[in-house]
Amino acid sequence: MPASADIWSLVGFILYLGGAAVCALAAGWTHSRGDKDRPDHDAVVAALGLTAVWCVVTAALSASSPLAIVFETARNLALILALYRLFANDGRDQTLKPMRLVVLVLVGVEILQIGLLFVAINFAITDELSALVFQVSTMFHVMVSVAALALLHSLYVGAAPGFRPMLRWSASGLAAMWAFDLNFYAVAYMAGGLPAELLAIRGLVAATIAIPLAIGSKRSAENIRLRPSRSVAFQSLSLLAIGTYLLVMVGIAKSLTVIGGDFGRLVQVGFTFIATVVALLWLPSQHLRGWVRVTAVKHLFQHRYDYRAEWLRFTQTIGQGDGDSEPLQKRAIKAMADITDSPSGLLLLPGDTGGFELASRWSWQGIDVPADPVHSELAALFEKTGFILDVDEVRVGKAQYSELEELPDWIRDESDVWALIPLLHFDRLTGIIVLARPSDPRQLDWEDFDLFRVVGQQLASYLAEQSGQQALMESARFDEFNRRIAFVMHDIKNLASQLALLARNAERYAENPDFRADMLVTLRNSADKLNALLARLGRYGKGGLEKREPVDLALVATNVASQYAGAHPVSVVRDDSSTILADGEALDQALVHLVQNAIDVSDQDSPVYLDVTSDGVRGRIDIVDSGVGMSAEFVRNGLFKPFVSSKAGGFGIGAFEAREIVRTMGGRLEVESREGLGTRFIISFPLAEVSELLRKPQSQSTDEAA
């Protein structure tokens, strides 16, 4: 105990000196810079000055020394006077005359402290008398604190609304001081002595109340508000929740000691262990973080979001554009999901056929998204209204427009889907973000919708800019390709020159048998090279439009498979008769491109299958491999882009050329791929009979027009 008393005595000495310094500085600042025309100005300066002197005397002597008691009484009288003069700021010191009586009573009780000090020095010769004097003194202090707090309540509540901001700081400082004194002397009365711990920190309390009193001495202080950032409020509330939990657990653990004995000790240790495990599992949880964040925003702030912080985070997420970062599509989802702490999301973008398709997913691998995830009617509704779709509202039957009928079943049935946010660029729907439900879900409100809408417009502009940039890059690459064609033409010219030279030499050496033999070999090789090169070059820009004849898909598949005999296992697993109208050579070339790609990504002995089927309307060839597969992002953004290849050293034009050949012949090329499982390319054409039926109405309308 003596060591503990010495420690608290040292702490009190330091805090009292610090409190004296702060109060003295506050008194000087209030005297020089405070509003001198305010009625409470002189009283506040006197109260702060006397508080500084009281702190110095208490640090030098002790809190129970006669001189410290005298200066504490003088300080209290000055504070009571300051409280009374605060009423004069709006003239209530004259209209509320009963308040004067209360103030006079408080002054009288404080003056009685001097009388009790005189009695204690001269007449309290026994311990019983000293204890009695101490109890009466502490009871007087409690009475003064209670009455002063009541006066403060009347001061603030009864003030006109226009004067309350001016009184806020001064009233809060006085309330803090008397609230502490009330608790301090109440504990002292019950304990029969001054508590050493609370006594030591009275200097810190004096410094704390000096600051709002000094701030409140200027009328401009009414514009000063305590506005903690959301981060500070969130961290403070988190610490408060954790501290409260720990205090409750410690209190319960301490109360278990009443059981006594070994069993009581075992119960206490077991409870502490369980409480620790629960804390380790619960305190870091995402659900607790979400609850704390929602509670702090709901009760401490006028607006839900700190827009400056949200904008900085959004900019940082989108701006991570180096080579190691995620693609823009994923970063767009994350930027939107971070607003509401959603754990995952999807991005739907327009496809080649006009509908929407899955473009990217962020941390949401378990959800199964169909090939046509959003109906055209819902997309049109998004583009027309730009509203944010709260999926929970739709599930309970509420709707703003016609989303009850248009919402797809996969979204309605997936409980984790929380909200759909349209991305509008110049009133055109360029994408839809699907957000997952956060760990601490809540109902979306107008502020969520406004922020979603603004961020969605910004993301739409970023995605549109990226699309335009890719188009420019593709155009530049085609320019480069044209330059490469110039080199090819140069090679053709060299071949032509060689042939011309050969023709001239033939005039001179035509009778030489060796020359004739070499000439035939050279002619054959040059002709083969030219024919192959011209055949490839001739297809660019034509795509088989000039030649449309009946072609059997099964025969084409069999011919292509035979070209790889002995090189790689390529087999036709089904060869249904499917006759279409197309250019056989062009279709053969497109199929070769796709089969070669399948071989390149497959193991040496892993077979590639060709499956030819017909449903009576369309014929199709499926090229199936079990290679490495492709991601959804690459299928959408890289597979059919010229000069983009997933293979090392690949030129990246095979799949693009195959699709263009098929398209120009009236067919369709689709792809299904999963990483680690393989890829399926699907080439489909209308059967020849169907094509003829489709052509007849067109030809009849042309004849009628003629």
Automatic annotation (TrEMBL):
The chain crosses the membrane at residues 6-31, 43-61, 99-125, 131-157, 169-192, 198-216, 237-260, 266-283. The keyword Kinase applies. Gene3D superfamilies: Histidine kinase-like ATPase, C-terminal domain. This is histidine kinase. Pfam families: HATPase_c. It comes from the Bacteria. PANTHER family: SENSOR PROTEIN CREC (PTHR44936), SENSOR PROTEIN RSTB (PTHR44936:SF10). It comes from Pontixanthobacter aquaemixtae. Its EC number is 2.7.13.3. One of its GO terms (molecular function) is ATP binding. Residues 487-689 form the Histidine kinase domain. SMART domains: HATPase_c. The gene is prsK. It catalyses: ATP + protein L-histidine = ADP + protein N-phospho-L-histidine. Signal peptide: none annotated. One of its GO terms (cellular component) is plasma membrane.
